[in-house]
Specification:
Chain lengths: 254, 175
């Protein structure tokens, strides 16, 4: 059982892109949070994601061995070369949409990261993960607090966050759908089997939704494509904004 | 033989002196966000040691995304360039930084500056995320406090309010 260098790189790129794209989305809340404390919280979450993206993309560049840095990978790739889950690139929507997305994603990311911290195939990844796990523990707890507060709040907040859940649900399938890169990673112990990851996710998401008096949607059609570079129509706009400075001033540094 | 041993001893003591000097000077580098604490007190320099006759200074970031890390790294590099031009600064990630490394004296300094220090060990999940997380007000020492936001002015802090003296304060999170 082995994983090729190309598959290993693709796998790390996928992890780095998840963190980078979500960090870019959350960063857009800076100055727009509904209250000061949450404005600060959202930007702190963004900061963690971008910090994780930097270390993961740096690691991806090392494995690729072509001398590409975190900046090269973040700023100089086209949309089709990005490997993030579709869930993280979806527009922020309202505060409830953002926190619901964060609950669904960070609970998944937390359990994935716990596994990375314990595996021995990629030691630098294990070191990155040991730190990130503690950060993500705060992320999922914060998101769960807010989903419960909004879901079990007023009729207005309940209905709005229930509709957030309905809109986002078809994007959660991709987190657990089999993919060749994941399968190769699972073979060498980089990833837990998808059903194990999904069981851990379900075991946390279900009680939160219940406490929030929200109805878990039925699993139906699930969107996919992010891991193959086939993105939603929102991705191009996100990259245009994120990459504009680096592309306008090639090679610029602070 | 005797002479060689004597040389060896004096080399060793020279190296110890150089290392000691680096440790002393590191204490002059503050954390940009907590300027009353230096990088040694925060446990961000796990080791200083000699490698092939030149010193290596290890720097360990606290939070992955903490913007202060770059500033601190640069400060340490500048310091080393001045006193040990051939020395090197090495970024290390393992074992991950934890608030467990903070000494009681460091925590007392935090209290004196209006920041409630982390309580208990990070291995204790109740302190990390539990519902019974208790934080004492750094001003009046009351335990009647409530969490305003889990994310405060920097990545490492949460925002609290004291219900006894009504003062808002920062709590250095336990990680």
């Amino acid at each position: 059982m082995t994983v090729t260098q190309e598959q290993h790189f693709a796998f790390l790129l996928h992890l780095g892109d998840d963190a980078l794209v979500l960090g870019q989305r959350l960063g857009a809340w800076c100055g727009h949070g509904p209250i000061l404390e949450e404005d600060i919280a959202l930007t702190n979450l963004a900061l963690d994601c971008i910090g994780q993206a930097r270390t993961l993309l740096t690691r991806a560049g090392q494995v690729e061995g072509q001398g590409r840095t975190e900046d090269d990978l973040a700023y100089l790739r086209e949309e089709r070369a990005f490997r993030n889950h579709l869930l993280v690139e979806l527009p922020n929507g309202d505060f409830g949409d953002t926190l619901m997305r964060h609950l669904l994603y960070s609970t998944f990311a937390y359990h994935r990261m716990v596994h990375f911290a314990g595996q021995t195939f990629d030691q630098p990844l294990a070191e990155i993960a040991a730190r990130a796990v503690k950060e993500l523990a705060y992320h999922k707890a914060h998101a769960a607090d807010w989903v419960i507060r909004l879901g079990d709040g007023t009729r207005e907040s309940h209905d709005r966050v229930q509709s957030s859940l309905l809109r986002l649900w078809p994007y959660t399938g991709e987190l657990f759908l089999p993919h060749p890169v994941d399968a190769a990673a699972a073979e060498v112990g980089l990833l837990p089997p998808a059903p194990v990851l999904q069981a851990a996710w379900d075991a946390e998401i279900n009680p939160v939704l219940e406490a929030a008096t929200l109805t878990r949607p039925a699993d139906g059609w699930m969107h996919r494509g992010g891991k193959d570079g086939v993105h939603t129509e929102h991705m191009g706009y996100l990259l245009a904004e994120m990459q504009s400075i680096a592309r306008s001033h090639p090679g610029a540094t602070w | 033989m005797v002479n060689e041993d004597a040389n060896r001893v004096s080399e060793d003591s020279q190296e110890t002196e150089r290392i000691e000097r680096i440790w002393q000077r590191l204490e002059s580098i503050p954390d940009p966000e907590l300027p009353f604490l230096n990088v040694v007190e925060l446990g961000m320099v796990p080791r200083v040691f000699m490698e092939s006759g030149e010193p290596i200074v290890e720097v360990m970031p606290t939070y992955t995304g903490c913007p202060a890390t770059d500033v601190i790294l640069q400060d340490v590099r500048n310091l080393l360039a001045k006193i040990e031009p051939l020395g090197q600064v090495r970024l290390v990630l393992t074992p991950p930084w934890t608030t467990d490394v903070l000494t009681e004296a460091t925590k007392e300094k935090m209290r004196a500056h209006g920041i409630a220090p982390p309580e208990g060990g990070q291995a204790d999940r109740a302190f990390l995320l539990g519902k019974n997380r208790q934080v004492a007000c750094p001003r009046c020492r009351s335990w009647e406090t409530s969490l305003v936001s889990a994310f405060g002015s920097t990545a490492c802090k949460a925002h609290y309010r004291c219900n006894a003296c009504q003062e808002p304060f920062d709590h250095f999170k336990c990680i």
